[in-house]
Amino acid sequence: MARHLNPCSSSSYSSSTTFTPSSFKNGTHLSSRFIIVPRKPHSSSWVSLIHPRIRARNHFQLKSSNGHPLNAVSLQDGTAGSPLAKKHIEPRGKKGSLPFSELDNVESHLSITIVGASGDLAKKKIFPALFALYYEDCLPKNFIVFGYARTKMTDEELRNMISRTLTCRIDKRENCEDKMDHFLKRCFYHSGLYDSEEHFVELNSKLKEREAGKLSNRLFYLSIPPNIFVDVARCASLGASSENGWTRVIVEKPFGRDSKSSGELTRCLKQYLAEDQIFRIDHYLGKELVENLSVLRFANLIFEPLWSRNCIRNVQLIFSEDFGTEGRGGYFDSYGIIRDIMQNHLLQILALFAMESPVSLDAEDIRNEKVKVLRSMRPLQLEDVVVGQYKGHSKGGKSYPAYTDDPTVPNDSLTPTFAAAALFINNARWDGVPFLMKAGKAIHTKRAEIRVQFRHVPGNLYKRNFGTDLDKATNELVLRVQPDEAIYLKINNKVPGLGMRLDRSDLNLLYRARYPREIPDAYERLLLDAIEGERRLFIRSDELDAAWALFTPLLNELEEKKIVPELYPHGSRGPVGAHYLAAKHNVRWGDLSGEDS
Ligand SMILES: NC(=O)C1=CN([C@@H]2O[C@H](COP(=O)(O)OP(=O)(O)OC[C@H]3O[C@@H](n4cnc5c(N)ncnc54)[C@H](OP(=O)(O)O)[C@@H]3O)[C@@H](O)[C@H]2O)C=CC1
Ligand SMILES: O=C1O[C@H](COP(=O)(O)O)[C@@H](O)[C@H](O)[C@H]1O
Questions:
Q1: Which residues pair with 217 in a beta bridge?
Q2: Active-site residue (options: 42, 345, 579, 585)
Q3: Hey, which of 120, 283, 347 would you mutate to test ligand 2's pocket, going by the most ligand atoms within 8 Å of its Cβ?
Q4: Do 352 and 290 touch, CB atoms closer than 8 A?
């Protein structure tokens, strides 16, 4: 195999092996017990397969996050441009396609490889999510999970490590311990380097051994630092892609630092993977309340007619954590809160909130609408942004560190741990409506919410009761994403009694009261969707480009001008500048209004 210096190599996005089409495994033989159904009647590239066993398991069908039955165990994702996408599978019954009899003979197998299995995210989120899916019978009958990392570990040691993070959550059914044992028996480990194709070939042999001739579908989860994404995509693609089923790769954020690096990352990944195979995860899209946003809008008559500049005064997207960057300072310092939270999680929510009604619930229809919103955003101005950084603080005899006290953070770091911004969408629906974002670490509370403040009632008969500030008593719809999921609507209400006194009350849908069951973690939903081939909750490359196009000029300006962040005490409500920014746009932060603070 020819070796040369590749622009996607190590220090940028590493690789040192030239791609030639012949270097790819190009499995050709399809014989399976699957029924092929076109996912979209008009698109032959969306050929999907449903295993009869899976079809028989209704629970599996019901879990698809777009509300459609499972229809997404596509044999081979992608149709062009990538080594993993060379095969074209004709729908059953078409000329040249495999006969029914041959399709009926092979069972499928799912292999999930977590690359970076020794890391924080894998332990905290990915293994527990996979166990929860197994526990809920959402994984196919034949599956295995492989951990891959440089750390030397035996299968047994991996199992020990994972078992410490698995919980018998949900409703503590009596067979949970058994299920845990069964799950752990399906977990294996392979130690290897991230840039060694040879080590992935070894992994491939272990996978094959356990797949035992079944049709193999393979999912790789890249839970690793971004500088090795491309190395792993290359080695996994060349050394361990499925020969007869699909191969998909979940990529964790950050997807670059700006437009240029993100474009470069996409370009490098696409040397080895087709866009259809890349699942860029934004775990906020997997959160229950974010999922519910579209249901609320499009399945209720009462909201959509109000959903525009005609009735909405402003929208607030708020994220805060009551802890600092503890343990992640090294990563955080080269990204900062704007890249860590705003450019992805909050902007994705904004796009879902503001998009027009999609043609259907199909992933492409939804992502088309989201990308239109992102492309309609007014360029962000520095004067519409406030940045902050937490400083040390003592309270109740306890002292809390400053951001720069972290030994992995330079003492003179200007990296923002807090930011607030006013954004605008230049389209007919949202012209002039401020979308205020606020994200901060080491704030007094942990929360994520969407607040919609409505205009005041014109000619309100009861305006006397509100005093001079009519905006103070307008309706406000709150979607509390976390903690304690809820949707509530603030309304003006008559206080019972003989007089006419109004107060503010909530129509409150508190999830724990209405749905007293545990809400699945975002990673469960997203992993299941990736297994099913459902891309709706994953970020398409043009969405990513549009998101970076919005934030890159601002980030450059902040860095070039060395804007000094406003210091705020650890555990406070954030910098005062955020209030001035809101006031400039005639907005009061709903979370600090006194009613909800
Ligand atoms: N942790 C979290 O809460 C979140 C993480 N993410 C993203 O998920 C990915 C994984 O995160 P996380 O688990 O925290 O990351 P870790 O820093 O824990 O890294 C994961 C694994 O990658 C290997 N690794 C770490 N640093 C390097 C390096 N410099 N070169 C080569 N290998 C390295 C290590 O495995 P070994 O040494 O055994 O090879 C490590 O166990 C990252 O992209 C992160 O940004 C996204 C959202 C939240
Ligand atoms: O992506 C990230 O998200 C977490 C917050 O996620 P949550 O689900 O716990 O709200 C954040 O702590 C981290 O900095 C960021 O990278």
A1: 110
A2: 345
A3: 283
A4: yes
Cis peptide before 483 (omega within 30 of 0): yes
Selection from 3-17, 28-42, 71-85, 472-486 with the highest mean pLDDT: 472-486
**DSSP notation for 475-513:** -EEEEEEESS-EEEEEEEEEPSSSS--EEEEEEEEEHHH
Kindly report the backbone phi and psi dihedral angles of residue 301, in degrees, each rounded to the nearest multiple of 5, phi listed first: -70, -30
Nearest CA-CA partner of 536 in 299, 357, 280 = 280
Spatial separation of the C-alpha atoms in residues 408 and 323, rounded to whole Å:
17
Amino acid symbol at 149: A
Task: State both tokens at 77.
Answer: 């994702």
Task: Give the CA angle between residues 38, 42, 46 to the nearest 5°.
Answer: 40
- Half-sphere exposure of 351 toward its Cβ, with a 13 Å CA cutoff? 29
pLDDT at 105: 58
What ligand 2 atom has the least distance to the C-alpha of 319? 10
**Least confident among 110-124, 245-259, 402-416, 459-473:** 459-473
Across 103-233, the runs of DSSP E, i.e. the strands, are 108-115, 143-149, 187-191, 215-222
Distance CA(55)–CA(580), nearest Å, equals 56
User: How many other CB atoms sit within 10 Å of the CB of residue 100?
Assistant: 11
Which ligand is closest in space to the CA of residue 223? 1
Mean pLDDT value across residues 305-323: 97
Contact indicator for 249, 277 with CB cutoff of 8 Å:
yes
Ligand 2 centroid, distance to 162 Cα (angstroms): 21
CB 569 within 8 A of CB 391: yes
| Residue 67, CA atoms < 13 Å, CB-side half-sphere | 7
88 as an active site residue: the answer is: no
Confidence bin at 170 (pLDDT 50/70/90):
low
Q: Which residues line ligand 2 (CB under 6 A)?
A: 283, 321, 340, 448
Which residue type sits at 216?
A: S
Cα-Cα end-to-end distance for the chain:
62
Our separate counts of H helices and E strands in the chain read: 20, 20
Instruction: Write out 432-458 in H/E/C secondary structure.
Output: CCCEEEEEECCECCCEEEEEEEECCCC
- Which amino acid residue places its CA nearest to atom 7 of ligand 2? 284
How high is the ipTM of this complex?
A: 0.98
- How many angstroms does the Cα of residue 329 sit away from the middle of ligand 2? 13
What is the rounded average pLDDT of the residues 34-54?
Answer: 33
